[in-house]
Amino acid sequence: MVHMEKKIKSYKDLRIWVKGIEIVKNVYAITEKYPSKEIYGLVSQMRRAAVSIPSNIAEGFKRQHNKEYKQFLHASLGSAAEFETQIIISKDLGYVAEQDFKVIAEMLDHLSRMITVLTQRL
Hints:
Elements lengths: L14 H17 L10 H20 L4 H27 L5 H24 L1
Helix pairs in contact: 1-2, 1-4, 2-3, 3-4
């Protein structure tokens, strides 16, 4: 039996985009538990940074040239680093449980490595 890879027709077919969406869903769930005083601070920043990761992947996919696509993937990595900083701050402030932090940090690390590999292959 020959295994054929699914043809990527849309950014929605990209594993990095799907993983990015998973991270966004986790961020929204985690930040629901933050103190209300953080809704316009850390919560808002974290959600924006997390949403920016798959959004840049999608936008870059629609670009005509690999150079442009790479720029959006780099922006996605930047948003991932921004979010990573914010989740570390959240853990240090006691807003996020250690187990939740470990899960999201591992997801983010895995996604960042995947984006880096794709960037190198373009």
